[in-house]
Amino acid sequence: MNGKSEKLLAFLGTGKRKAQSVPEIADSLGLTAREVSALANDLRTHNYNVVSDEKGLYLAETDEEIKAFVIRQHNRAVSSFRSITHMRNYLKSKGLLPKGY
Protein backbone atom coordinates (compact mmCIF):
# COMPACT_ATOMS: atom_id res chain seq x y z
CA MET A 1 0.00 0.00 0.00
CA ASN A 2 1.36 3.41 -0.89
CA GLY A 3 0.77 6.96 0.28
CA LYS A 4 -1.94 7.58 -2.29
CA SER A 5 -3.81 4.47 -1.15
CA GLU A 6 -3.59 5.68 2.44
CA LYS A 7 -4.87 9.10 1.34
CA LEU A 8 -7.87 7.49 -0.34
CA LEU A 9 -8.53 5.27 2.67
CA ALA A 10 -8.57 8.29 4.98
CA PHE A 11 -10.90 10.14 2.60
CA LEU A 12 -13.52 7.43 2.06
CA GLY A 13 -16.70 7.53 4.10
CA THR A 14 -18.17 4.50 5.80
CA GLY A 15 -21.52 3.16 4.66
CA LYS A 16 -23.59 3.63 1.53
CA ARG A 17 -24.92 6.97 2.74
CA LYS A 18 -21.34 8.31 2.58
CA ALA A 19 -20.65 7.12 -0.99
CA GLN A 20 -18.95 9.59 -3.31
CA SER A 21 -18.51 9.35 -7.05
CA VAL A 22 -15.09 8.51 -8.42
CA PRO A 23 -14.84 11.89 -10.24
CA GLU A 24 -15.69 13.73 -7.00
CA ILE A 25 -13.05 11.78 -5.10
CA ALA A 26 -10.51 12.34 -7.86
CA ASP A 27 -11.12 16.09 -7.83
CA SER A 28 -10.90 16.27 -4.05
CA LEU A 29 -7.65 14.31 -3.88
CA GLY A 30 -6.00 15.71 -7.01
CA LEU A 31 -5.99 12.35 -8.76
CA THR A 32 -7.43 11.00 -11.98
CA ALA A 33 -10.53 8.81 -11.94
CA ARG A 34 -8.38 5.93 -13.20
CA GLU A 35 -5.97 6.40 -10.29
CA VAL A 36 -8.85 6.37 -7.79
CA SER A 37 -10.17 3.12 -9.24
CA ALA A 38 -6.72 1.53 -9.17
CA LEU A 39 -6.17 2.68 -5.59
CA ALA A 40 -9.54 1.26 -4.54
CA ASN A 41 -8.47 -2.09 -6.00
CA ASP A 42 -5.15 -1.82 -4.16
CA LEU A 43 -6.99 -1.24 -0.88
CA ARG A 44 -9.15 -4.30 -1.55
CA THR A 45 -6.04 -6.43 -1.98
CA HIS A 46 -4.97 -5.21 1.48
CA ASN A 47 -8.25 -6.43 3.00
CA TYR A 48 -10.09 -3.10 3.16
CA ASN A 49 -13.76 -3.45 2.28
CA VAL A 50 -13.90 -0.72 -0.34
CA VAL A 51 -17.08 -1.18 -2.31
CA SER A 52 -18.78 0.69 -5.11
CA ASP A 53 -22.30 1.01 -6.36
CA GLU A 54 -24.38 3.43 -8.40
CA LYS A 55 -23.70 6.17 -5.81
CA GLY A 56 -19.92 5.77 -5.74
CA LEU A 57 -17.12 4.42 -3.57
CA TYR A 58 -17.22 3.88 0.18
CA LEU A 59 -16.03 1.62 2.96
CA ALA A 60 -18.62 -1.07 3.60
CA GLU A 61 -20.41 -0.77 6.89
CA THR A 62 -22.44 -3.98 6.68
CA ASP A 63 -22.12 -7.46 5.32
CA GLU A 64 -25.09 -6.69 3.04
CA GLU A 65 -23.10 -3.88 1.37
CA ILE A 66 -20.23 -6.29 0.77
CA LYS A 67 -22.61 -8.98 -0.50
CA ALA A 68 -24.25 -6.56 -2.97
CA PHE A 69 -20.79 -5.52 -4.23
CA VAL A 70 -19.67 -9.13 -4.67
CA ILE A 71 -22.82 -10.02 -6.61
CA ARG A 72 -22.46 -6.98 -8.90
CA GLN A 73 -18.79 -7.68 -9.57
CA HIS A 74 -19.46 -11.37 -10.18
CA ASN A 75 -22.19 -10.56 -12.70
CA ARG A 76 -19.87 -8.12 -14.49
CA ALA A 77 -17.11 -10.73 -14.63
CA VAL A 78 -19.44 -13.39 -16.02
CA SER A 79 -20.69 -10.98 -18.68
CA SER A 80 -17.12 -10.06 -19.66
CA PHE A 81 -16.07 -13.70 -19.78
CA ARG A 82 -18.96 -14.54 -22.10
CA SER A 83 -17.96 -11.73 -24.47
CA ILE A 84 -14.32 -12.77 -24.40
CA THR A 85 -15.24 -16.41 -25.04
CA HIS A 86 -17.25 -15.45 -28.12
CA MET A 87 -14.45 -13.29 -29.54
CA ARG A 88 -11.78 -15.90 -28.71
CA ASN A 89 -13.79 -18.60 -30.49
CA TYR A 90 -14.15 -16.33 -33.51
CA LEU A 91 -10.39 -15.74 -33.67
CA LYS A 92 -9.67 -19.44 -33.15
CA SER A 93 -11.96 -20.31 -36.08
CA LYS A 94 -9.79 -18.09 -38.27
CA GLY A 95 -6.54 -19.53 -36.93
CA LEU A 96 -5.56 -16.18 -35.42
CA LEU A 97 -4.78 -17.36 -31.89
CA PRO A 98 -1.86 -19.49 -30.79
CA LYS A 99 -2.63 -23.09 -29.86
CA GLY A 100 -3.70 -23.55 -26.29
CA TYR A 101 -5.12 -20.07 -25.94
Structure description:
With 101 residues, the protein is mainly alpha-helical. Helix content is 60%, strand content 8%. It is built from 4 helices and 2 strands, in the order αααββα. The protein has a two-stranded antiparallel sheet with strand order 1-2. Strand 1 and strand 2 (56-59) form a beta hairpin. The chain is elongated, with a radius of gyration of 17 Å. It starts with a helix and ends in an 8-residue tail after the last helix.
Topology:
Elements: H1 3-11, H2 22-29, H3 33-45, E1 50-53, E2 56-59, H4 63-93
Antiparallel strand pairs: 1-2
Helix pairs in contact: 1-3, 2-3
Output the keywords.
101 residues; mainly alpha; two-stranded antiparallel sheet; 60% helix; elongated
Residue share in helix? 55-70%
Number of beta strands? 2
Number of H/I helices: 4
Mean pLDDT: 96
Low-confidence stretches: none
Q: Ends: how far apart?
A: 33 Å
Secondary structural class: mainly alpha
Radius of gyration: 17 Å
Strand fraction = 5-15%
Shape: elongated
In short:
With 101 residues, this protein is mainly α.
